[in-house]
Write a structure and sequence with these properties.
The protein has 388 residues and is α/β, with parallel strands linked by helices. The protein folds into 2 domains: 207 residues, Glycogen Phosphorylase B (Rossmann fold), CATH 3.40.50.2000; 160 residues, Glycogen Phosphorylase B (Rossmann fold), CATH 3.40.50.2000. It has 12 helices and 13 strands. A 7-stranded parallel β-sheet has the order 3-2-1-4-5-6-7, sandwiched between helices. Strands 10-9-8-11-12-13 form a 6-stranded parallel β-sheet, with helices on both faces. Helix 3 packs across helix 4 and helix 7 packs across helix 10. The chain is globular and about 60 Å long. The two termini are 19 Å apart.
Length: 388
């Protein structure tokens, strides 16, 4: 089969897609990508064809413009051009890429959505405490999607709580049944496939290796700071909390929206730091509730300390962390250097948290994630010919 991957311009969306593309390529399928042209050299360097109708358009696939109907229309134009050149049997995309949904309909090609790490949308008769928030989110997405459809000359899609448009023809939810206790109420298009984590080999990590040296595992903390919407200064307070301790703190600032600062010698900062270089040696993770950090932490059996930023999907991740005893959650408005230090102390004094994380890490490993996802994609177009 020919499979066209369509991703918005974020490693959090593109890298899981790349991992799935590599698995499908090994299984004999032909793969191509379309995305922001800044990723052309990276995608071609990984061995795949990159198709885009305008290498000067750096906005259509930006995550920050996902809600702009004009950008949705421009996405649609790029995808149609790529599809005309590649003639795909299947499209694979992510949440927030509405142009892919439109093209799936226009081209009559099945769409697979490689989703988040927690369920974000309504379910029938679930009674979940977040159902009102989930319905609000779906309504907002549908409103934005319909504006994009109108821009492309298409009629609006109606409300459908049983099989909402956002799922495409197959929605690969990057988690496991043990974490999603209401999974039996999910729409039939949803397939749980495990974490689907992939990251490239990162050049220039010698400084990181030197920084970590032979530091014991229980003295290394990994932090991934995303958007905090000016509600706190997380990097500043991390530096205050741990700057005069024996801990070594590795902070990925690639998604950060606060100002950078000069950090103490035991705090290492960088953009797009590969988790695989740090998490096997770490005691715990600190994050703002982003999917990649959450899934990476559990995959390595590490406790989660989540600073709840209010970003899309973070409340669901916080819910899973608390419900399953995988760590602690701190609202951004409560962030101080004292509260951060106390949180680390709390996790250290409650070994049951680490025990729970190790158990779910084993579940993640058993999910055989990319293999499961690849089989689901194959079965979409040729039922029974993929894996059981």
């Amino acid at each position: 089969m020919r499979i066209l991957f369509i991703h918005t311009s974020s490693p959090g969306f593109l890298f899981p897609g790349m991992g799935l593309a590599k698995k499908l390529a090994v299984r004999g399928h032909e793969i191509a990508f379309t995305s922001d042209p800044k990723w052309r050299s990276f995608i071609e360097g990984e061995g795949f064809q990159f198709l885009n109708s305008d290498d000067d358009d750096h906005y259509a696939f930006q995550v920050s413009s996902w809600h702009d109907p004009i950008k949705v229309g421009e996405q649609t134009k790029h995808i149609k051009t790529a599809a005309a050149a590649f003639c795909p049997h299947i499209l694979v995309s992510n949440d927030f890429c509405f142009g892919a949904h439109i093209c799936g309909e226009l081209l009559q090609v099945p769409l697979v959505v490689l989703g988040f790490g927690a369920w974000l949308y309504p379910t029938l008769n679930s009674g979940h405490a977040m159902e009102k928030e989930r319905q609000w989110r779906l309504n907002r997405f549908r409103h934005i999607y319909n504006k994009g459809r109108s821009y492309c000359g298409l009629s609006s899609v109606p409300i459908d709580r049983e099989q909402p448009f956002i799922l495409g023809d197959l929605y690969l939810l990057r988690t496991i049944a043990e974490l999603e206790l209401e999974n039996k109420a999910f729409p039939t298009k949803v397939k749980l496939v495990g974490p689907c984590l992939w990251e490239p080999e990162a050049p220039g990590t010698a400084n990181l290796n030197d920084f970590l040296g032979d530091t014991p595992r229980d003295m290394i903390v990994y932090a991934q700071i995303g958007q905090v919407f000016k509600k706190c200064e997380l990097l500043y307070n991390l530096s205050l909390a741990f700057g005069r301790t024996d801990f070594k703190i590795v902070v990925d600032t690639g998604r950060m929206d606060e100002k950078t600062i000069c950090c103490p010698p035991n705090v290492f900062t960088g953009t797009r730091i590969p988790m695989g270089r740090v998490l096997p040696k770490a005691l715990m993770t600190i994050s703002t509730g982003m999917t990649t950090a959450y899934l990476g932490s559990i995959s390595h059996g590490l406790p989660n300390f989540v600073v709840s930023s209010g970003g899309s999907g973070t409340s669901e991740i916080c819910d899973r962390v608390l419900r399953h005893g995988l760590g602690i959650v701190l609202p951004t408005e409560n962030v101080t250097h004292t509260s951060l230090a106390s949180a680390l102390e709390f996790i250290a004094k409650h070994p049951k948290i680490a025990e729970n994380c190790r158990a779910f890490g084993r579940y993640f490993k058993a999910s055989n994630s990319f293999e499961t996802a690849a089989c689901a994609v194959e079965n979409l177009i040729a039922p029974g010919e993929g894996c059981p």
